[in-house]
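Hey, quick one: can you model this chain's 3D structure?
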Amino acid sequence: MKKILTTFLIAIVTLGVANAQSPDQIAADYVKAIGGAKAWKDVKTRKYTITLNQAGFDIPGFIIGDNKNRERFELAFNGMKMVQASDASTAWTINQFQGISQPTKLQGEQAESALAAQFLDEFIDYKKRGYSLSYEGEADLEGVSCYLVKLTNKDGKETTHYFDKTSGLQMAKKELANGQEAMSIYSDYTEMNGLKVPAKITQKMGGVTAFSISIQKMELNVPVNDEMFAFPDK
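Sure thing. Here's the predicted structure for all 234 residues.
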């Protein structure tokens, strides 16, 4: 009887291991769902035309970046503008909404966050980039059954990602920011220029919606120059 019970328990444990999802396969399914690694790696520069919604206001702007991990985020509203940019070594801002009218270098966690931004999706070539994945089970996100995958980057920072079990698409990303839980929720996936992107990104801080970004257009391989990203000398 004991031998039968032991055999049964081993079979159950083995079944559990066999049914556990491979984080590598989840990542591969996701990359395939958004258009494939090659198509994304062929993109040298990218520009999103966006609208940011915060506190009931719709603010138009754009995000432009290149495969050197340089990025510029710009908003304009009521004659004022906000710029946050990075040339991959220095991050800086102009924010007339907060009384910062001159280019000012970002410091501390703000600078680290801006400089950590990656042009290429973090699940493309993640092993070559020194990232590791682990399977963290399943969870329900707003009625969608998801796989959970934890990504640890080469600096040891951990983020948890939610992938739709049916479509393979990423539904959310959870991390710690400024000492509290931050969650980016991705929705309204749309095909743009042959690539699939979330047309809406909702940012929550501590469970409360802080803002959302809607993407109206994505342009690929647009012209860029150093001045877009570099901290102005004067």
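One thing worth noting: The first strand starts at residue 45 and ends at 54.
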